Amino acid sequence: MSEEHKVYLKKIKKKNRLVLITQIIVFILFIVLWEIASHYNLINTFLTSSPSNVVKTIISLYKEGNLFKHIFITAYETIISFFIGTLIGLIIASLMWWNNFTARVISPYLTILNSLPKVALGPILIIWVGANMNSIIVMALLISVIITIINAYHGFSNTDESRIKLLKSFKASKWQIFTNLVIPGNIKTIFNILKINISMSLIGVIMGELLVSKEGLGYLIMYGSQVFNLNLVMTGIILLCCLSIIIYYIIVMTEKKFIKYY
Amino acid sequence: MKEILKIVKLNKRYHTVNGEIEAVKDFSFNVDDSSFIAIVGPSGCGKSTILSILCGIEKKSGGKILFNKKDAVIGYMLQNDTLLPWLSVLDNALLGLKINGNLNKETKERTISLIKTYGLGDFINSYPSSLSGGMRQRVALIRTLAINPDILLLDEAFSSLDYQTRLEVSNDVYEIIKKEKKTTIMVTHDIGEAISMADTVIVLSKRPAKIKNVYKIKFNDNTTPSDKRTHEQFNTYYKMIWEDLDINV
Ligand SMILES: Nc1ncnc2c1ncn2[C@@H]1O[C@H](COP(=O)(O)OP(=O)(O)OP(=O)(O)O)[C@@H](O)[C@H]1O
Ligand SMILES: [Mg+2]
User: Fold this and answer.
1) pLDDT, tens digit, for every residue of A172-223?
2) Is the CB of B78 inside 8 Å of chain A's CB atoms?
3) Which of A196, A260, B41, B237 is deepest in the core (most CB within 10 A)?
4) A88 CA distance to ligand 2 centroid (A)?
5) d(CA A162, CA B157)
6) Which CATH superfamily is domain A51-261 in?
7) pTM score, two decimals?
């Protein structure tokens, strides 16, 4: 490695570190300002809560033994609907790729379903599935499944023609084309779908919890606002942030493990 | 010489909603074993179509294609760079064997030795993104040779390369093909490439492709393609073929 290159790498590292440090400072500054402003009554803590109150709330939730219960419930619902939604979506997209007739029949319905705000189906779901965890999962699943189908099918059907030709020249069967070309060629698309679906599932789960549940972070937020306990609401939102960051990060790490050819 | 392939009155029409396209018309030709045939013709005249039909990717509309043996294996090297970016050089080279179910210890060893013989030994576990254009085409050729084809079809295999690399790769590929004694049909729009590599050049008319002329290419001594380009005979052939094509346009 030449000296010049070392200097170059050092420079990049330094820049990256600077960005990270600034990001951390902005975060800390935000928390500190929030705390100071509430401490000196510059803002109405009844409406905005404060970092120390959030911490206190988290501690008391923990002491009541409810903290992890709420987090786990939400995480559980999210992950279940995420997996089922993604799986069903990918399977349907694959069927559409496999059979053009199916694709053409389904397409307009997908467009309609995609433009429909799934939240509007909430009340019906509650009646059909019941006011329980199942309707929350179904709701979250509905939100992610349509967009999964659309994105995955788009990726699948844009598989490079000359690569398909190449495989055909080796007398590949349709299944071989699917497993050797369509799926690995769309790994990036699939991971993007996973990333989108995690937030979609979370949105769905929180929506559902706001509507029906007795537990979970969405319930915490809803309950807090009903009794005007804004500490609880803020705590719920912050815990939700943490949860979504953790799940998102897991997907990014998996992606890095998977995609190594760049 | 032994004939390996007979093409008789090959016809091809494409059907689209906007109408019918006649791509190939009464194309007849016999291919000798170990010969190197180049097909030149105006852009869009149906050259790729002929190769696609030979290799079974497209259906013919009429005519006969007779190989001298049942289940002849055909190696097709396509116009674009078609290495799969998510596979290593070795896995790319083994792709054909994997797909047609002939991947075993012996064929794998053979492919590895091809990779080493043709100067890619150091890159066997690299991904295509770290190879130069010329190296990529060499991997693509090895992938095609790995299935041990009876006949090799090259479709503008070097057109994506810059001129310098293209001359080098032509030399490499020529050497590889001669060494492996492969019967080859190469499509190109580069007259020079055709003359310097092939022993027979077929000139096609504009669409639908019909044979306009066939040239037997003979040089006094058999050297590399880039050497042939400096021969007197090269210019003579070049002029004849160029005029053939020019009249078409
Ligand atoms: N799948 C297809 N459907 C309809 N028409 C096609 C199809 N493939 C090729 N054609 C048409 O058939 C004609 C011959 O195409 P082909 O690709 O064989 O030409 P070519 O000689 O290889 O051209 P180029 O020099 O551009 O590679 C063209 O007019 C093309 O538009
Ligand atoms: Mg072509």
Assistant:
1) 999 999 999 999 999 999 999 999 999 889 989 998 898 888 889 999 999 9
2) yes
3) B41
4) 40
5) 13
6) MetI-like (1.10.3720.10)
7) 0.85
